[in-house]
Amino acid sequence: MSNKDRASVRPSARVIKRYTRFRHKRWTTLILLLCFFAVTPLLFYSAGAKQTKATWLWDTEWIRDAPDEVISFSKDNQVNLIFVQISTDVREVEYRQFIRKAHEAGIDVHALKGSPEWARADKQEEGTEFIRWVANYNEQAGPKEQFTGVHLDVEPYLLRGWKGDQSRIVREWSHNMTRWLSEARAAGLYIAADVPFWLHRIEASEGGGSLSGWMLERFDSLTIMAYRDHSDSIYDLAIDMLAEAESANKKILIGVELGPTDEGDFVTFHSKSVNYFEEHLQEVGRQSVDHPSYGGVAVHHLRAWYEKVNP
């Protein structure tokens, strides 16, 4: 081939420049896409996309005596779900007024109740009556005055006979939960429950898996009481049940403790600063956000939280 022929097939400077620009744009686009996929989960978490931030409210009279205070504090701290204990000291009209205000602030309210004794066969009716009360209340309340779910706090491991008669207690508790689940489903109620972080180690009374797995298959959600004073420890306690919930295609909340306790300082953020608590709460979310089963956090409890921020 002559020099002239070679020159005729050699790309021009303009073509080389265009090709170089194309390659540069292609690599730039690829890098931007990789960055996008790397940071998108964090962006969704920081924006709170569909993440729940819940809290327990045990002193029910608070919603009657100072409802605006409860809602203002909750909203300021990005709470979008409150578990309110049901008490006969608060009238139905007062529940309606509070829930209406909460909904206007973007906060859902679940009816909360339970006790260790509810795991016993002779206490099944108490749980059933609670769920029926919520169902009847919702039938009479306006759409913006209704409880959006029920939340059970039954902790049978606090019973005196737990260590010596665990199998029987688990069997009766499971039987009671089956009845309560049926009542909630019949009423169209979302139903969730508090569970300890170690529940996956307890065998279901029907066999074939863990008790936490049995509950995850049946309840809409569970809240893990992963009470520790450091994000790493909290995540370590929650990770097994996050995996179980993922298999069951369910969302779970990770609960943290702010109140005083006689179980040790490592169980609660009570003696820590507000900044320390908030930093570790955010870190729990960052560590857990890659789990599809992670639904958010729950702070126990609202009064302790309020007094921590307003000493």
UniProtKB/TrEMBL annotation:
GO molecular function, one term: hydrolase activity
Protein name per Swiss-Prot or TrEMBL: SGNH/GDSL hydrolase family protein
SUPFAM superfamilies: (Trans)glycosidases
Keywords recorded for this protein, A-Z: Hydrolase
